[in-house]
Design a protein that fits this description.
With 187 residues, the protein is of the alpha+beta class. It has 2 domains: 7-41; 53-170, Aminopeptidase (3-Layer(aba) Sandwich), CATH 3.40.630.30. 43% of the residues lie in helices and 22% in strands. The strands form 2 sheets. Strands 3-4-5-6-7 form a 5-stranded mixed β-sheet. Strands 1-2 form a two-stranded antiparallel sheet. Strand 6 (119-127), helix 4 (136-151) and strand 7 (155-158) form a beta-alpha-beta unit. The N and C termini lie far apart (94 Å).
Length: 187
């Protein structure tokens, strides 16, 4: 038999238990939501078909990188004479890079060089031709811009391959003003 004095103690214990229980449920729900959000964020929907691609900030293997570089045609648009090894070393030396894989196959890649404070330059955005026009280039740019936002970088530059200017314009990039053109020098 419980006396009246004990009922308030039991009620207090119940309230504490209830609060701990609800906080635990809320914590678990938030963790599940974050995990599921990251998983869903990596799903790309194309013409009603769900494609499950994975993202990685780990540099792809030399072979994967070279294969994508050649398949995308980006290697042909490079000014200067660079070996495959030099191009891979440039990717290794980047401030940030992002890759998209279909299973184990590298299908898209992009990288940035930066001072990590206020300037970044987007380089080598490439998508396997068999995967183009599926939003992967946009996904690469979005991930690169997200990294800049996280780091507080506001000034982002890029060099566009011929014929790709409209792609970047759709993503918010603007051509430099005529009275402040970019300059380049090939040694």
């Amino acid at each position: 038999m419980i006396r009246r004095g004990n009922s308030s103690f039991i009620l207090l214990q119940w309230k504490e238990f209830r609060n701990i229980f609800l906080n635990t449920i809320e914590f678990l729900f938030n963790m599940l939501y974050k995990y599921m959000y990251r998983y869903i964020e990596n799903m790309i929907y194309i013409e009603g078909e769900r494609m499950n691609y994975t993202y990685s900030t780990k540099l792809p293997s030399f072979e994967q990188f070279v294969q994508l570089h050649e398949a995308s045609g980006l290697i042909k648009s490079k000014k200067g004479t660079y070996t495959r090894e030099q191009l891979y070393q440039a990717a290794e030396n980047s401030w940030f890079h992002i890759s998209i894989y279909d299973q184990e196959r590298l299908i898209a890649f992009g990288r940035m060089i930066s001072d990590g404070v206020y300037q970044a330059l987007i380089c080598d955005v490439m998508v396997d031709p068999t995967y183009q026009n599926q939003g992967l280039g946009k996904q690469i740019i979005e991930q690169l811009l997200k990294k800049c936002q996280e780091s507080g970088i506001q000034s982002i530059q890029l060099f566009s391959a011929k014929g790709k200017q409209n792609f970047y314009k759709k993503l918010g990039f603007e051509e430099r003003e005529l009275d402040a053109p970019g300059m380049s020098l090939i040694l």
